[in-house]
Amino acid sequence: MKTFATLLLSFAVAFTAAFAQDSTKPAAANPAAKPSDAKPIVQLAWLVGGVWTADASGMGNDMQRIETRYTWSDNNAFVRFNTHFVAQQGTLHQYDGQFFFDPEKSALAMWYMDSKNGITQGPITVDGDTTTLSFRGPNFEGKVAELRVLVIRKSNDHYVWQLEEKSQDAWKPLAKLDYLRTP
User: Fold this and answer.
1) Does the CA dihedral 141-59-79-38 come out positive or negative?
2) I need a surface site. Which of 19, 30, 123, 164 has the fewest CB within 10 A?
3) Rounded distance, CA 142 to CA 130, Å?
């Protein structure tokens, strides 16, 4: 019984200490709050909050726009994201995933699942205003290829999303969208 009481007391102290750090703005009340600057994931903090929308009307399939939302996890350890394809017939909840710091590789990484249960994962690198997400996946012809997405920050409320495929020793652009943030 003494061990249980000690464990309970330790949990209470840890719980109290966690909320004492910023009791005025808990993570749930402030979804844009970012973790400590000491965490590498803070490099992606600028994405969190609002709805990022890209005009997708030129992509065919009656698509109107693509909406992506980024939020902090409840413990501010990683960034959650989801992407919806909005068409006149309805909305497809296409992607749901996370950006996180992988301690085994000492690097940022991502994983997400698409609406057909396909899992994509890979490393993330940040170089100034360009964030690169690298992965293997199907290209527009359905063939598995080395792909990357460049997220090029233009301002706090605008980024360019560019999908590229590795072709021999060069990267070939496949698609490009401008995303703007609304509250």
Assistant:
1) positive
2) 19
3) 27
Q: Are 173 and 152 contacting, i.e. CB atoms less than 8 angstroms apart?
A: no
Question: Among residues 137, 131, 116, 126, which one has the least CA distance to residue 162?
Answer: 131
Arithmetic mean of pLDDT, 67-95 = 96
Tokens in use for 82?
């989801």
* Entry pTM: 0.79
pLDDT band at 158, cuts 50/70/90?
very high
Cβ atoms of residues 95 and 86 within 8 Å: no
* 93, 94, 96, 98: CA torsion to nearest 10: -140
Chain segment 30-51, per-residue pLDDT in tens? 455 666 667 999 999 999 999 9
- The answer to whether 76 touches 33, Cβ cutoff 8 Å, is yes
The span from the CA of 125 to the CA of 107, in Å, is 8
The pair of three-digit structure tokens given for residue 150, joined into one six-digit string: 């460049």
* Contact indicator for 53, 37 with CB cutoff of 8 Å: no
Give 90-109 as a DSSP string. Answer: EEEEEEEEEEEEETTTTEEE
Which SS3 state, helix, strand or coil, does residue 65 take?
A: strand
